[in-house]
Amino acid sequence: MGGKGIHIEGLKKRYGEGDTAVYALKGVDMQVAPGEVVGLIGPSGSGKSTLLKCLGAVIDPTAGRMILGDEVIFDDGWKVRDLRALRRDKIGFVFQAPYLIPFLDVTDNVALLPMLAGIPNGEARAKALELLTALDIQHRARAMPSKLSGGEQQRVAIARGLVNRPPVILADEPTAPLDSERAMAVIRILNHMARQFETAIIVVTHDEKIIPTFKRIYHIRDGVTHEEVGEGRGFE
Amino acid sequence: MISLAGRDILHAWGKFVFTGIGLGLLIGVTLSMAGIYRGMVDDAQVMLDNTGADLWVVQQDTQGPYAESSSLYDDLYRSLLDMPGVEYAANVTYLIMQVGHDGHDVSSMVVGITAGEPGTPGQPRHLVAGRHITRSHYEAVADISSGFQLGERIRIRRNLYTVVGLSRRTVSYNGDPMVFIPLKDAQEAQFLKDNDALIQQRRRNAENPAFNRPGIPDLLAAVNASQSTNAYVNAILVKLKPGTFPEDVAEAIRRWKRLQVYTRTQMESILMDKVIDKSARQIALFLVILSIVSAAIVAFIIYTLTLGKIREIAVLKLIGTKNRTIAAMIMQQSLALGIIGFVVGKITATFWVPIFPKYVLLMPLDSVAGFFAVLLICALASVIAIRMALKVDPAEAIGG
């Protein structure tokens, strides 16, 4: 791994105590290298969302170890004090629906994260524009989210996820609301961005269309992951 | 850092402006209520100012002439003129009456005044048109808010009076316009009986053996005559010589004349604490209720607006927005709503105050206090929405 990307060992998550305790994650092992895009698939109730929430530092794992970039962030307990700052600076999120802030224009939707990190507005907007240009959506920079198509909105969401140059991006069903053509475009962009920005990307999906595009896939079933080599078609 | 609240308001400005206008009308009513209270207090103070008196001499053991009835003989003022420190003393009567005018009645305070120099106690101080009363009968000076015109004939009881002068801000403590008439006319008007009542009274006197004694033929005529005249006034207004302490003179009158005397401070206290107290408390209760209603409306609006942004708030929290940034966004929106509402309320109150039938006094300091009260109410009203927003789980942004 070379100390980059994300590395997970024996991650467990238990809900409840005593007789009512249920293990949603029973020991997940996973590693994603910088520049790599992996798929995470599994049936409903298999623990996908729980794993994503643990990786996203929005719920507390019960046990295990997580290394993000060069930093051990969890080792049977959080090793970072400010999880909010961790999410802001080290983890990018792309959701099923873009969930753009409706009252901010495209540029400010992307620039908001660096602004929250204390970067001056002008500099934050310059970073946002740079990414919007990379994603070929700079021509909609001043548009409000409601004026964008679904595909454009998802590209803005990807730009927002990438803007702080996080070592990992968690993408939760990013192609679900899109047709095949746009879904493939989004996956192409994610692959391109992963390579360009040396970011590890985990894509949770049910989408049969995009599963063949992954080189590596993690199947999760009953709280345990199984690694599988994917077809990895199309984006070299 | 950009202002999230400002952007949200600009994005949904129509919603904010229209909600602010609605809230503003409520704030306008609240400001007007405060103005009505101030107007009542001002009316009471102006009424006392207009008398030009330093002391009010009234019947013993009464709080007259404004809080309760008071009767004094109309020749008592002469003995007061001899008291040390007294510069001027004048009889006065106050009658709440319906004054007939142009086919309808105007609720007025009819003030009976003695003829004297303008500026002496009881006289209307400043006229805006016409002249002071110069004749002993059937002339009147009226406050301009009565609607009477110069030269117009008005009816008080059975008699007609000519309006010879108009004054401004000469009103009773409850805002009724004052109509000044000669004292003798006012005394007559106070107990003026109709013809049937006079015949009945004379018949009763004639049949009363105490009044109609054989051998004393003039007694009945004397009794009838005494019952047809009124030698009472409600109060004597006293103006003191410069440098005289009101309480010293008041104490001397109480001691030697055995009358009740009130200084300006005491009379003001009677008006505030006894006469207009209930109305003032009623208005205060209205203000409290309106403040609670305003707070409830702001809280409901902000809560609803926040409820519509739950997903965005979850996303903001997930991407690392601090709780205080989210709380500030909601509070700033609430305050902005309050500011829009206050501006609208202040403007509407200023425009609709002149059409109120009673005097409404909008004090700049009340507006400043109202502004800060609105901000405080809005800040408090946003607490519920902030609590809800802070409870939003960032995990809600992640499906499943």
UniProtKB/TrEMBL annotation, chain A:
Which domain of life, per UniProt? Bacteria
Could you cite one Gene Ontology molecular function of this protein?
Answer: ATP binding
Pfam families the record matches: ABC_tran (PF00005)
Q: Which InterPro entries match?
A: AAA+_ATPase, ABC_transporter-like_ATP-bd, ABC_transporter-like_CS, ABC_transpr_LolD-like, MacB-like_ATP-bd, P-loop_NTPase
Alphabetic keyword roster: ATP-binding, Nucleotide-binding, Transport
Gene Ontology CC terms: plasma membrane
Query: Domain ABC transporter, which positions?
Result: 6-236
* Name the UniProt record assigns to this protein: ABC transporter
TrEMBL record, chain B:
Q: Which residues form the ABC3 transporter permease C-terminal domain?
A: 285-394
A cellular component term from Gene Ontology for this protein is: plasma membrane
Which regions span the lipid bilayer? Answer: 12-37, 283-305, 326-348, 368-390
InterPro entries named among the record's database cross-references? ABC-4/HrtB_transporter (IPR051125), ABC3_permease_C (IPR003838), MacB_PCD (IPR025857)
Q: Where is the major localization of this protein?
A: membrane
Stretches assigned to the MacB-like periplasmic core domain:
21-255
Pfam short name (any one) = FtsX
Membrane topology of this protein: Multi-pass membrane protein
Compartment(s) of residence: Cell membrane
Q: Which UniProt keywords apply?
A: Cell membrane, Membrane, Transmembrane, Transmembrane helix, Transport
In Swiss-Prot or TrEMBL terms, this protein is called: ABC transporter permease
Q: Which species does the entry assign this protein to?
A: Methylomonas lenta
